[in-house]
Design goal:
The complex is a heterodimer of chains A (130) and B (138). Chain A is mostly beta strands and 130 residues long. Chain A has 2 helices and 9 strands. In chain A, strands 1, 2, 3, 4, 5, 6, 7, 8 and 9 form a 9-stranded mixed β-sheet that branches. The radius of gyration of chain A is 14 Å and the shape is globular. The longest helix of chain B has 12 residues. In chain B, a hairpin with a 2-residue loop joins strand 1 and strand 2. Chain B is 17% helix and 40% strand. In chain B, strands 3-6-7-5-4 form a 5-stranded mixed β-sheet. A 4-stranded mixed β-sheet of chain B has the order 8-1-2-9, with no helix packed on it. Chain B starts with 6 loop residues before the first strand and ends with a helix. Chain B is built from 3 helices and 9 strands. The interface between A and B is medium-sized, with 21 and 19 residues.
Chain lengths: 130, 138
């Protein structure tokens, strides 16, 4: 599976790449009728500078995601699910933590796939906003 | 011959001491590599990954209600506790093995009590277990 990784409030997050249609630079106009949701606000990360916007595929909705750092191909087995009991809500938008096995780290020489990141669920993020 | 029930770990957080039965302790890890997780319950410091599992780490001081007093929490070790297959890391300032009877004044907590405070048994099971455990423990 391919993921888009981005930095937000000092941490690295990821979204399924197939969920993203394209990325807009900060300040770039949204398509008419498209609604942008601030991920930092939804995750209670506090105030962050204006970030890039990920237009979601097949929707008139977008996520303000911070700074994209690249894409990576990951094996689903690298996604470690987070126990539901650590969240106060039944459907937290954090799917799990992506941990690249040590033997695969840095192969592409890009920081995007050398560390650990939290995989977000775009559908649950949007549902939180509604 | 010494029984497992006579072996303990003494955990210290914000000046409070808690004894955990050694049988409940799976690992003691250095306080490194904790990844913060947004929207987690209060008291969750983050997660650590070990052996292909993500283990939530709770600040022991929070579970004991100590941080409500405003006491500073120092970094220490992460004590991984297992209860009914669920793993939880407890962030303590100091961790020491102990044998025999725990010292007077050290609260004795079992895994169910601690994990209930961590919100794991919100279906009610934990509350009942914790109440029973607390009758004989704390």
């Amino acid at each position: 599976m391919h993921v888009l990784m981005f930095e937000l409030a000092g941490a690295t997050y990821a979204l399924k790449l197939e969920a993203v249609d394209r990325i807009l630079a900060p300040g770039e106009s949204l398509p008419a009728g498209c609604d942008a949701v601030d991920v930092a606000g939804l995750l209670n990360l506090g105030e962050v500078p204006a970030g890039h916007v990920a237009l979601l595929a097949g929707r008139f909705e977008a996520l303000v995601i911070g700074r994209p750092v690249g894409t990576a191909h990951i094996d689903p087995s690298w996604i470690l699910p987070l126990p539901g009991y650590m969240f106060p809500m039944p459907e937290p938008p954090v799917r799990g933590i992506i941990e690249i096995p040590a033997r695969r780290r840095g192969r592409a020489g890009r920081p995007a796939i050398t560390g650990r990141s939290l995989l977000l669920d775009e559908e649950l993020l949007l549902r939180m906003r509604r | 011959m010494e029984k497992d029930s006579e072996r303990w770990f003494m955990l210290t957080a914000c000046g409070l001491q808690v004894s955990l039965p050694a049988a409940a302790v799976r690992q003691i890890l250095p306080h490194t590599g904790v990844i913060p997780v947004p929207l987690a319950r209060p008291g969750v410091a983050g997660v650590v990954t070990r052996d292909g599992r993500a283990i939530p780490v709770y600040a022991l001081a929070d579970l004991l209600g100590a941080t409500a007093t405003g006491a500073a929490v120092a970094a220490g070790a992460i004590v991984v506790v297992e209860q009914d297959g669920a793993l939880v890391g407890l962030l303590a300032e100091r961790t020491e093995p102990a044998r025999g009877r725990p010292p007077d004044g050290a609260g004795i907590l079992d895994g169910v009590t601690l994990l209930s405070r961590a919100g794991i048994f919100d279906d009610g099971f934990g509350d009942q277990q914790a109440a029973r455990a607390a009758e004989g423990a704390l």
